Amino acid sequence: MVTHLDKQFSRRTFAESMVAGLALSSLGKIAKAETPPSSAASSSSEQSASSAKHLIIGCLVFPRQDQIDFTGPFEVLSRIPNSTVHVIGKTKEPVRDVMGLILTPEMAIADAPLLDLLLVSGGLGQQALMEDQEVLSLIKNQADSGRWVMSVCTGALLCGAAGILRGRRATTHWAAWDLLHYYGAIPTKARYVIDRNYISTAGVTAGLDGSMKIASILRSDADAKEIQLEIEYAPDPPFHSGTPETASPEVIRAFFAKYGQVKKSREAEARHFARKLGIFQT
Amino acid sequence: MVTHLDKQFSRRTFAESMVAGLALSSLGKIAKAETPPSSAASSSSEQSASSAKHLIIGCLVFPRQDQIDFTGPFEVLSRIPNSTVHVIGKTKEPVRDVMGLILTPEMAIADAPLLDLLLVSGGLGQQALMEDQEVLSLIKNQADSGRWVMSVCTGALLCGAAGILRGRRATTHWAAWDLLHYYGAIPTKARYVIDRNYISTAGVTAGLDGSMKIASILRSDADAKEIQLEIEYAPDPPFHSGTPETASPEVIRAFFAKYGQVKKSREAEARHFARKLGIFQT
Description:
The structure is a homodimer.
Chain A: E1 2-3, H1 4-10, H2 15-30, E2 55-60, H3 67-77, E3 83-89, E4 95-96, E5 102-103, E6 107-108, E7 117-120, H4 133-144, E8 148-151, H5 155-161, E9 169-170, E10 186-187, E11 192-195, E12 198-201, H6 206-218, H7 221-230, H8 249-276
Parallel strand pairs in A: 2-3, 2-7, 3-6, 7-8, 8-12, 9-10
Antiparallel strand pairs in A: 1-3, 4-5, 11-12
Helix pairs in contact in A: 3-6, 6-7
C-alpha cells in the first residue's frame, strides 16, 4: 500500500518540510477538487461531506503487460495529495512485464477495497486475460459503480471484453485502434478520451498524459500542474516517430514485420467478442 | 536478466512473427549501429569485429529513488535489438522507490559484468548513496572505461560525487541544476546533454527523451524511431507546467514549500563535495 500522506510524513528528510508543504499547498488545494463522475461514489466508506476525500486508487498488474502503462501513471497518481495507490494482481506473486521487468503486486483482486480509480494496463499479456472472469468483473463492477476506470494502450481491449466500451468513446494503441468498434466503442483519435467515468489513453506512454488529466479531475488543475513541475514533464523527444502519421514508411513496415502476427490474433479475438457481446455478426 | 533476443524468441504469440521481424528489420539495422565512444569498449568479451555487438546495459536501482528515472529508460533500452538489460542493486533485495513502488534488482553490483551503458537514476534516495564507495566506484570505473554512463535527474549528483562531472557539460532536475557547478560540471540547460561518454538528462521524465537518444547512438536512428512508434511516444501533456519557465508562480511556490528542506540539504552536500573534490573552497 502506497499512501501519499503516510509516506510523506514518514520520510526523514522530508518530514518537516512536508508538514509546511501540505499546510501551504496540498490541503488547501483539496478544497478545489472536482466531485466524482457519479453519485455512486458516495457509497464509498471513505466519502466525506467535503471534497477532501481520501482517494483510493488501484493499479492492476499482470504478466507480460507493458510496464510503463502502469509505472507512467503510477508516477503521477502516487503524487495526488491525500491518496493511496494499491498495486493489485490476481495474486501477490511478482509478475514480469513483456520485456522482463519484475512488478510486485501488494494486494490480490479478491482483497481490493472500493476504488475511486482503477487503472487497467495493456501490452501483450492483455490477451491472456480476455476470458478471465475475475479481472473482467473487477473492471465491469468498477465501471457500473460510477467510479473511474482508466485504460492505457490495449488495456482498452480488456475493458471491451468486460463489456464497458459499448456506446462509449474510446481510444487505444494506434495499431489496435481499428479493433475498438468490435467491442461496441466509438473509436476516437486522441491522446486520451473521456466518456463519463471512463478515460482511455492511446498507446503505452500516453498513460502519462492521461494520468495528468485524471489527477486534475480527481483533485485540481493546480495539483496536476505541481506534479508536472515536480516530475519535469516537459517532453521533447529527439525524433518525431511516435505515431503512424509522423513515422516513415520504413519504420512502420519494420514495426508491422514484428507485430503482424499479434495483430491477426487480436483481430480474431475482437471478432469473437463482437459475436459474444452481440455487437454484430462477423 | 532481460535479453532482447532471448525473450522475443521465447514468446508464444510473438515467436513466428519475430523471426520474420528480426530478419527484416532489427538484424539489418544492427549493421548501422554506431561504435562505442571509446576504444576501451573493445576489451568487452562480447565485442565482435562487426557493429552487431550484443549490448549489455545495467540499470542501478536503490531505495527511495524515483522509479520512472529507471522505468522510463527501461521501456526504451529493453527494446534495443540484440541487447540485455540487467537490473542492478547493492544486493538483490527488493527496494521501494520514493513513493513506495517495489523495484526488484536481479543482480548485485559485485556481480555486474562489463556494461556498455550504466543508467544512474535520481530521486531523494540519491542522498543516502553520496558516500557509498561501491556505488561511486561502479560509476567512476564505468566512466573511466570509456563506456557510456547515463544519469537521469539527480542521478547526476551521484555522478558528481563519483568525480566524473569535472569539466563535463551536464544537466539535472531543474531544482538541482544550480548545484552542478559544485561538482566541477559545466551546467547546461537541455532536456539531455552529451559530453563524451556521459549523457545526463533533466528531471525524472527526461529519462525517456535521453534514452531515445542513447538508443539511436548505440544502434541507429531507425531503431530508436521504431521503438518510439511501438511505445507511441508522441507526448501531449494536458498542461504546460513541466518547467519553472512554464509553470505559474503559485505552482512553483507550492513545489518549493515541499522541496525547500531537501534543497538546503542538497546544497550542504554539494558544498561538502566541492571541498572534497578540490573544485573550490566554499
